[in-house]
Structure formats: structure tokens, C-alpha cells
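User: For a benchmark we're assembling, each entry needs the component sequences followed by a predicted structure for the full assembly. Here are entry 17's components. Please fill in the structure.
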Amino acid sequence: MSDLERTPAAETASRTRIQPDLPMASALGAVGNLANEFLEWFGNLGLFAWQVLRAAVTPPFEWRELVRQLDEVGSKSLPLVAMAGAAIGVVVSLEARYSLSRFGAKSMFPTTLVYSVIQVMGPIITGLVVSGRVGAGMGAELASMKVTEQIDAIEASAINPYRLLAATRILACILMLPLLTLATDACGLLTGWFAQALVEPLSFHQFISSGFSGAAFNAFLPQTFKTAVYGLIIGLIACFEGMGARGGAAGVGRAATNSVVLASLFLILADVVLVKFILVCFS
Amino acid sequence: MATTYDHPMKQAEDEIPGSVSVVAVECVRKAFASHKVLDGVSLTVDRGETLAVLGRSGTGKSVLLRLIVGLETPDSGTIRIHGRDIAGLALDRMGEIRKKMGFLFQHAALYDSLTIAENVAFPLEHHRRDMSRAERGDRVAALLAEVGLEHGFHKMPSEISGGMQKRVGLARALALEPEILLLDEPTAGLDPIGSREIDDLILKLQHERQMASIVVTHDMHSARTIANRLALLNEGCVIAEGAFEDLQQSEIGFVKEFLKQS
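Assistant: Structure for entry 17:
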């Protein structure tokens, strides 16, 4: 038998040596491609953010568009965040009463509800609700403008689209999120008290005095104002996805979906960092 | 006499040495991924002149306009507006040059959240803040009248026909009194009567305003009506340039075929 010929056993061995590597190679390749795509996306987001920042700090400023966006992000999100706040107030009230009763700590109810709503639930729920409503709306609106060349028309008219469209929206989100969070907190505390008062008489004055007793401003203000960072995340990602959309109606859908999903994800991750930052700086 | 190019860098015989054209595109190349769209395009347009750029679909005619207005950046070559190279200019610097240009997009690209009047007023609100509201309203009415629209200013773009959208787009492009007018397929999607009306309108505006105009089209009848010169693009290059009568004398096979089929 010549060197060029292989025995059947050798042939099988060479085949079985190659095949097990392929799934591993393709899995590693897929992970590598995913990492590549993420880094590319993140890099482009950074470049976009830089363009927006440069546009935002150079005149002429788009005050009228900013006011319009403050209304769009703030006033029009208010009913939704108020409802969300009311719902979490009831949920936290019911859960807290049950848990505290088990441990004989019913007197801690007002404090538990106040701290839970203002420090934890209020900010994150506001962020997620606004991310869904505003993020999707902004992403879809800007994507629709992109695929119909309206953004190109703005640029061709010698108007900076980063200043007119992105900077105004992002600033509106940054300014409105803390205010919307206050609205969520207020509704949450109100309905939380009401849910408790239905079971055990407790005046609202008593509830507030007890809940806020011994609390300093820095127990609540940093948690409320951290939502400005949520606003930055929501506005930046929605504008980036929208203004970079391509591919017609499918592209608009993708931009809207990505705006919500990515903003929500980054918002939750940012919360982890911000909570630690607040605990270190303000405790 | 038609000027036909063996090589994109060959200078036109009648070009005045040292003269500065309003728009000068010199050996511009542009590719998207591995697909070469423009491969050494050169052309010039002077004040009061209308150049029609023709070619088959997908030969880069619209890309050429986007390069001139700065929405795309050439891979190589230069684009000069009044002698100034615009390639790579920052957004705000490019804005000063764009104020002298008017661009009519293929589908008009009207802002769908604004009314017709608000669309036309949009560039004025941003660049003519010295104008009072009343002055702006008068100017918008005058622009819309100039393009043949006398009423319905409160309507949204979705409520008007394609032809009317083109007229509104044209009025918006003229709002800042541009010296250069770029028109991307102005008659695309219109019926024959609508197309002729747009042609007549462009001719009238050109006669009155003496702008340097570049019209991208594959409508040969439209090109013959409104343009002083025609430039035929094929495989990324200008393969023929001149008046229609001169192009008819061309011996280049593609030119003959294109004119025959038009």
C-alpha cells in the first residue's frame, strides 16, 4: 500500500479528529463576533454622544424644540408613571404588611413603605416605564425620519440634526426623569397608605411623620436625582438607534425595539453602579 | 461640440484656465463596502447653468448629489463649492456652505409632523431669525405661490399629492435664496402632465434666479427641456458630456443605446 493511500481505520480517525473541533470553533467564532459587534456598537454610541455634546454646547440653541420635548417626555408620561406608582404602592403595601406581621414589626410599616418606594421601587419603575414609552416613541420617530430622508433634509438645510433632534430630546429626558420619579413616589406613597388604612386605621399625617422620621434629605434626594442618569441613558440610546436606522419599516421596528430593550438593560446595570456610588458617597 | 472623455481627468476644451466654477467635482471616487459607485467622476457647473446627470438606475447619480451637499464624503477626489474644498468639513462649517444650496430630495422628504407652510418656513425660522413672524408668513406665501400653490397651506404632507409634495419641497429648497440648486429625480413618480409642469417650473425658476443647477434624472425629455448640458454616467464615470444635439453625434455605443431607448 502506498503512502498516499489510507486504511479505512485511518480515514475514520482523521474524520473524527476534525469534526469535534468544528462546533467548538464555530461557538468561539460566534462569541467573538458578538463581542466584536458589541464593541463596535459601543464605540459608535460613544462617537454619537460626543457629536451630541459638542452640538449641545454650541449656539444657536433650540429652545423651542427643547420645550416641546419637555412636554412630550414629561407631561405626556405623567399619567403613566402616576399609574405605575399607584400600583407599586399597593403592591409594596400588601407585601410589607404581610412580611412585617410575620416578624412582629408592624410598627415599621410606614418607614418600610417610604424607603422601599422612594429609594428602590420608584426610581427603577419610573425609568422602565419611561424607557418603554419614551424610548420606543423617540426611537421610532427618529428612525422614521431617517428612512424617509427627513434627517438628511434637516442637515441639507444647514441645521445641525444632533443639536435639533438629539440634544433636545436627551436634555428633556435628563430634566424630566427626576420630576417624574417624584410623581411616581407621591402616587406610590398615597396608594400604599390608602391600602394600609383600609385594613388598619392610620391617618395620613401619622403615616408621613412616622415614615420620614429621622430621615435626612440625603436619604432620598440622591436616589431621586440618580434618575437623571436614567434619562441620559434612555435619551441617548433612543436617539442613537433612531438616527442610525436603515432598512425601511423593518429598520424602524428594529430601532424602536432596540431603544426599549437596550435602554432598559443599561438602566438596570447603571442602577447597580449608582446604588453603590450613593451608598459610598452619601451614607 | 460634445466633450467625450476617454479618461475622467481629461480637461474640457472650452474650460477657461483659472476660472472658478460654482460647483467643481474633480476625480471623485466613492464605494460602499466593496461596491464601487463612482470611479473618478469630474464635472463642473457655472452660475446660470443647468447640468442634467443621466444614467441607468444604480449608477450613482443620487450619490453624486449627496456628495456635493456633503451628506456623504468621497473616498478620494475633491468637491469644490465656489473654489472651496468641502470634503471632510465639520458639520457647522459645512452649514455655511449649505445655506447657499437648495436640495430637492427624490421623495421631497417633507417633515411629516409639520404643515406645508411650516415645512417651507423651517429653514427661515432657523436662519432668518431677524424676520418677524408676519414677514416669514409673507415669504412662505410668496414661495408657495412661486411654485404654483395658492391655498391649502395648513394641510399635512400626507394629505397632498406627490406632485404637490415636490412643489412644496422645491419651495423649501428655495427659501434661503440659494445660489446652487440640486434636484434629485424631480419628475420621478409623476404622471406625464405633472412631469411637464415641474419641468416648466424649474425652467421658470432658472430663468428668474440664474442658479447653478444640477438635476439628476433618467427622464430624457425632462433633461432636454431644462438642461443646458447633459452628463451621462456609466460604470462610475462620466462617459459623455455636452448639449443633447452634441451627444447625438457621439460614437460611444452606450451613449447611442441610452439615447435610443429614452
